[in-house]
Amino acid sequence: MVEISKHMFDSTCRDVPCNVLLHPWHEHCLASYVPTYTHSLIGSAKFYFIIHMVQNLMKGKKILKREELMKAVEYYARSTLFGALVSGTCGTFACTIRRLLGNKLTYYTYILIPNMINGIFILLEPPSRRGLIVDLFVNLVIEYWTRTFDRKGYFSMTKGKQTLMFMVGSALLFYLMRLEADSNRKTPLLWLFTPEKVRRKTEDSKTVCPHAGPCRPFILKGFLKYFGIGFGFTMLRVLGPRLGTPLKALSQLRWRHLDMGLFFGSYIGIYRAVICYLCKTHGADSAMYALPAGCLAGLSFNFKPSLGFAIASLTGAFKLYSTILYERKIIPDNIPISVILYCISQGVLFHARFLHPQDCPGYVVKLTNSVTNGMDKVIEASLRQMVKSVA
């Protein structure tokens, strides 16, 4: 889909009534709030129900405790309210800003600034979830900018460069995670694997490796477990939409559907194998071993190349390093940097969703469609019809 540039938007949409571009389902702003917030609440409830259900199922029997159930309900309610307010207030804030500017709508006040302002609702999420959401959105912004620069020819993001990025990111990330394991802090990360703590050598130690028992079963167990997780994700994506016709769904399976499982499985298998080899070679464990282990494990990226994964490995490492900087008071802790980052990221991504869709990450398109209960497509269609009619 073709992007809408600043010049194109300002020349065609500056004087257009807000009901055309912000709430096409009703002419008046106040009257449009009822369907806007209703759809936002319904869409957010459905979207976060699936996410929280999966997260709670991963807790196993622990979720059956009364305290955990109460916490799960509270967290789900807070997430739903967060999504509904972000989705609903976008139009509210945009209409308000338009009136303050003399009934003029600009390229930046259409989506970008309203969604930067309502990003403050991230504070509704509990701190344990908030950090992961910020990580996700920062990763998506970097992915969006990378796609944009690649398309415009500033640099070429080839598969080889993405692999190198993932190898370096994995090495740094695993190293910093093993360092952090020796401290009392615990930084929430959006990552699929937590490496074992460094084993301190004692007289009672029967092994120098960071695990109990023989190495081969440990390595194989890791491979099979994460292969199963990766393959399970693929099955949900492939078979989920076709559950009504299971035989037809199974007929769609191909060898390429093993890619995610092979990526996850070999990633963990190679990492554990290298760690064990280095421990046995040197007779002791060290956090430094995570550097070559993570780097070599990154070669598994070739099974399922993903710019998002490559970026996430580097941003995860940067987040862990920033935690060290906070502890050393190099970064002041009285500035809410994570909230500011989220507000900027949300504004940029939702702006890209409507005006630069060719570079916008697919997850953002699915997110806006789910949380708005499909109303984003109505807004986009109205916007493009207006630009097309004037152009």
UniProtKB/TrEMBL annotation:
The chain crosses the membrane at residues 37-54, 75-101, 107-124, 131-148, 160-177, 223-240, 260-279. It is found in: Endomembrane system. Pfam families: TMEM135_C_rich (PF15982). Keywords: Membrane, Transmembrane, Transmembrane helix. Residues 18-143 form the Transmembrane protein 135 N-terminal domain. It is a multi-pass membrane protein. One of its GO terms (cellular component) is endomembrane system. Coiled coil: none annotated. Belongs to the TMEM135 family. This is Transmembrane protein 135. It comes from Bicyclus anynana. The gene is LOC112047589.
